[in-house]
Amino acid sequence: MEPGKIADEVSTLANAAATWAAAALPNVIVALILLVVGWALSSWAERGTGRLLDRAGLEPTLRSVITTLVRYALLIMVIVAVLGQLGVQTTSVIAALGAIGLAIGLALQGTLANIAAGIMLLWLRPFRVGDFIETGDISGTVKDVGLFASRLDSWDGIYQFVPNSELWNKRVVNYSRLERRLVSLKFGIGYEDDMARGREVLLALAAADERVLSDPPPDCFVEELGDSAVILALRVWTHTATYWPVRRSLTEHGKTALEAAGLSIPFPQRTIHYGPSAQDRANSNVR
Q: Among residues 1, 22, 36, 200, which one has the fewest Cβ atoms lying within 10 Å of its Cβ?
C-alpha cells in the first residue's frame, strides 16, 4: 500500500475517533460524575441510616443489615443510571439482574429463610442476649443472635449453634424476660395434723426469707386431699434472678419447719388385708 493511502486512512480513522470522542466525551464525563456522586451519596446514606437506627435503639446486627441494604440498593441504582448514560440498554440490565437474583434466591432458599428469621428475631426481640429460653428440644442461655444462626449455652455447659429458622418457627419460652417469677411448692401433712398450723408454719417460713416479695404476698392453701396426705400448696413471688435459690431453700427448710412444729410428712403407703378367698368360703359353706 502506498504511503499516501496509509496516511489518508489514518487521518480518516483519527477524524472518526475525534468525532466519536467529541460526541461521547460529555456522556462519559457525566457518567463519571454520576458514579462519584452516587458512591458518595450511598456512603452518606449508610451512615445517616445507621445514626437514625442507633437513636431508635435497634439491635446492632439488624442495624448493620439495614444500612448495608440501603447502601447497595443506591449503588445498584447509580450503576444502572451510569450505564444508561453511556448508551447501554438498561431494560436488559435490569432483566439480567432480576434473573440473577431469582437464581440466587432459588439456590439459597434455606439460607434466605434463616436470614428472614434472623431479621424478624432481631426486630421483634422475643429474647435477648443473656436470656434463658426453651424452644422444642432446645434450651439454654442466649449468647449471640446473628443474622444466620444464634448461639446458646445449655445449663450443663453444652454449646448449641441453632439456625434462626429453628427458633422462629416454634414456640419460644423465655424464662428471663419478666422481672418476677412464681415459686409454687407442695408439702404433704398427715390427715390427723392441724392444717391451719401447717399453713401458718409455711407462711412464716416464706416471710422470713428476704428474697420473697411481699407484693403480692405469699399464699398457702389446701390444694388436694391425697391418698395418704393433705397437700398444702405454698406460692410466693421472687425476682427472676433468685428463683432457683428461693425454690431450693423453701423446699429444704419447709420440711424442717413442718417437722419442728410437730407435723408429720407421710409418704404413700398401701395396706394389704389377707383373708379367705371366695372359693375357700364356698367350700367352707359346703362342708
A: 1
